[in-house]
Design goal:
about 350 residues, alpha+beta, Triger factor/SurA peptide-binding fold, 2 domains, four-stranded antiparallel β-sheet
Length: about 350
Amino acid sequence: MQVEGFFFKRRKPLALALSSTFLLIAFSGCTHAPSPDVMATVNSKDISRSDLDKAYNNYKATQGETPDEPSPEQANIVRLNVLRQLIDEEILDQRASKLNLAASDEDVNAKLTELKAPYTQEEFDKKLKQQSMTLDDLKLQIRRQLTSTKLINKEIESKINITDADIAAYYNSHKALYNVIEPNYHLGWIVVTTGQQQPGVPNAHPTSDADARKKIQTVRNSLTTGQDFGALAMNASEDPNTNSNAGDMGFIAESQLQQRDPAAFAAITKLKPGQVTDVLPVYGGAGPAQHAVGYAIYKLISREPAGQRELNNPSVQQSIRQGLRESHAQLLRQAYLEMLRDDAKVRNYFAEQILKQGAK
């Protein structure tokens, strides 16, 4: 369960075709919700209408502005899936509490301090407002995210063992994937957008050029004082495709990097592994239509020469180990959550209400 962007962004709702299949709806004779403000219960713990409204508004804020307001039916589809997420979070919270794994106030405050580091207080407050959140809302999200991470680490991650034999078997079955035809650059980046929305960064909140420059320079200054690049990327970068993975862009072929941004390529080729560039402009569009859309700092993680990467290459072993571990963990996390759902007593009153209204 990864941390995305400035805050812990709520996962996107499930595919519409699956939502009705997986909703936890329990029918039990004439039992009714305790009050109209209770949307669901998990082992007798209420999830209120205000809880759902906050989560729904937070989800809408992460999607950016849309040209049209959703219809009531579309809005309720999203609400159903957001409520399903709240139910799952409550199930995990209750399990963690049972195992004494709940995040402490010290844990929450430390993470909050880390999140606030790249911003002034005014900028931080503005970011909260953009996300339709209060400080207490953010603290609750932090607590839940840290708690679920502690739970999954204990119940799942600590039990996964990827052996050298597993790595060798995967390599031998996918050897062609490690035959590189040109040099590759393993890069990370921290990107901040300006008033021009950057393609591929749908969740960014555009700012003025001056604000963007100020923010990225603050990040660059933090790097010079020894702050961790990955932590800054997770907290300050506006690229949702990489910020949850500490800014890691993966391996990029030399020709692709040179074609995409010659200036960035020239700066990156001067780096040694572990070093970062100065602040560089990021461009959108192509040809005459190309224009600056933000600023970025690149980190060279490693440079891989062309040719067959052998199994004894540490980066090959690491990438295979990480891939196998994450694949296995994803399967086990899903199975674990399904097991917890089976053990929980859940009642989704909002779903029942929608069905009753549809039957009239």
